[in-house]
Every structure is written in structure tokens, then in C-alpha cells.
């Protein structure tokens, strides 16, 4: 009696294996999705689940295959109609009836991304150049961390013709060069003396292929220049000049595997007009490594007499209170180190139970401003006060400096 139960288990497993997820759900699109949406979804997901990017991850590999299946089914209007009406069962019957079936998911991938359907360095496979860009990031985002995006124009494989360059998908071998892209020409240098020269085929431009009906979007060039949006995750305390690698996101071509896009984070200078909303002092802090710098202006009275407070607003809005009790003098140019109010120190692993964020310091430099105008009554009062205290305990800096009273006669050197 144990045989049937084993076959029952087997049946269940088969059921599981064949019971694929809804194609629309799999691609993260709805039933009204346009052809473009389907392509976009495929582009994103196939890259995400590509086995090269998920080594020894069986789930990702499975997803990669499923995403390709879903794309194949939904990108063809006829099979999409069948799928919409009869679901997976309908497609299965159609493929048994001789319809298209069993595409290699790597083939499909290479139609979108060029190369042999793989990332990285496959032997004998060409790789396109890397691309470098700088993205300006305000200091605030370096301090707090920020999830943002940026846009970049780059070369992409034409979605319309999937990189074939042809409107009808038909590409012929060039009749002029026989598909080699090059031709051998004979030049006569002198009577009877010939030189053989290899030249690029002028008919196909070295492609070895000709297209009768060119794709209307890329005009047969197989690629288009288009603006793409990239997600950018700026980690808290990320160092200036940090480089973030987007694998295989450089210019695409059907002839090679796209190189990497390398994004360098640079600090965007804060502008008084644009970034002064909310009057956050931190916006104008200057950064050097993990430390922040700020100039605070104080009056002569404050510098001399003390008895003041200042509330600096930091980059996340919290307050850093500076103060001096009465009688505490600040010399012009004094630099005060406020510990722990600098940048968060960037750590590879971010925050974790093993590690909490440490901070650099905030260095506040005091600039003392002297009044350049005084009420005449006030001037008299101050003068009198100075005179009184100068006589009692004042010092004469000229007298105390030890400088000579009059001009000094410099010794004249004897002539040799
Ligand atoms: Zn040719
Ligand atoms: Zn095209």
C-alpha cells in the first residue's frame, strides 16, 4: 500500500514545480501593462536575479528562468491573449501544438544586454568601457544618510527592435563581404606588383549584416541614447569621494557586455539663496574628514564679558548649545572643540549590534566683531571708564615692549 502514497508525493512535487506564479505578479506589473512596461520589468528583474549576480542561490536562479518565461509569454501579443484567457494551462497546450517553446533564458538576456547572456569576464567575450560620473550631494545627506536617485543619459540597446536594428526582426548577411565585415582589395603599385589591403566593408560598415527594413526608433543602429534613473543610497557619514559601483550599467551594446558605471560622491556647495530654508546652521558647516567646522560671530561685549548662549542648529535639526558664563573671556580666533558633534564615522557594516555610530568633532572658531559706531554719550562714558581703570592698573604696551625710543641707526658695512 506504500506505492500510491509515494506517487502521490511525487505528483505534489510535480505540481509545485509546474505551478508557476502569475506572470503579471512575477514581473510586478498589472494586466493593463504596456509592451514597454513589460520590457522595463524584464530588464530590471532579469538583472536582479541573474545567476552571475547570485552565485549558488537556487531561488534566484529559478526566478531568473521564470522572469524570462513570463517575458516570453507576455511580450508576444498572441500568447499574451491566450495567457490572459486560459492562463498557464493555455500556454502549455499551445506549445504542445507546435508553438514557440523552451527558449534559453540566457539568449533572451543577451538580446537585452548584449554579450553572451552573462555578466563579468567570460572568456572570449568583449566588455564595454566603464563609465564614470560625479554626483553632487549636499552635506546634509552625508550626515543623515539619504535614499535618492539620479538620472544619467547613456547608450542603451534599442527596446523597439531588441538590438537587432531591424523593424521586422530580419537581418541578412551582407552580400558584399559575405558577413565578414572586411574585404580584401588589390592595389597595383607598379606594373605587375600588387599589394593586398584589408578594408572595412563599405556596404555594411563592418557589421557583416544588412537590414532591409530599419528599426524606426534607432534607425538601424541597434542602440539609442536615453536617460535612465538610478537609485542612490548615500550611507550615513559616507566619505567624500566615495565610489559606488553599478555593475554592468555603463553604455550598452549588442556587441559587448556593458562595463560598470562608477559613481563618485562629491559634496555640493550649499548656496545661501537655495539652501537657507529653515535657517539651519549645519547646512553651511564645512567638512574635513569626520570633523565639521563653523565660524561663530560674537560681539565685543560677549567676547569680553561672557554671559551669553548660542543655539546652533545641526544638520539633522538638533541643537548644539554654545555658551559662556559671565566673566569668561573669549579671545578672537579661539577654536572650541565640541566633542561628538562632527560627522558620523562611516562604517562598512553601518549600525549593528556590534557597533554603534561614533562621531567626529565640531570645531567652532569665534570671530569677534567690534562696533564701528558709538553714541557720543556712550563714547564719553566708556572713555572716562577706561581712563579711570588705566591709571589704576593699566599697562603701557609701548613702554613694556622694550622697543627703542627713537629711530635706530643701522651700522654701515665697510666696503671691501
Ligand atoms: Zn559587408
Ligand atoms: Zn531599434
From TrEMBL:
Coiled coil: none annotated. A zinc finger (CR-type) spans 145-227. GO terms for molecular function: Hsp70 protein binding; unfolded protein binding; zinc ion binding. This is DnaJ-related protein spj1. It comes from Lachnellula arida. Residues 22-87 form the J domain. Residues 145-227 form the CR-type domain. Residues 394-416 are annotated as: Disordered. GO terms for biological process: protein folding. InterPro entries: DnaJ_C, DnaJ_domain, DnaJ_domain_CS, DNJA1/2-like, HSP40/DnaJ_pept-bd, HSP_DnaJ_Cys-rich_dom, HSP_DnaJ_Cys-rich_dom_sf, J_dom_sf. Residues 1-19 form the signal peptide. Residues 394-403 have a biased composition (Basic and acidic residues). Keywords: Chaperone, Metal-binding, Repeat, Signal, Zinc, Zinc-finger. PANTHER family: DNAJ-LIKE-2, ISOFORM A-RELATED (PTHR43888). The gene is spj1.
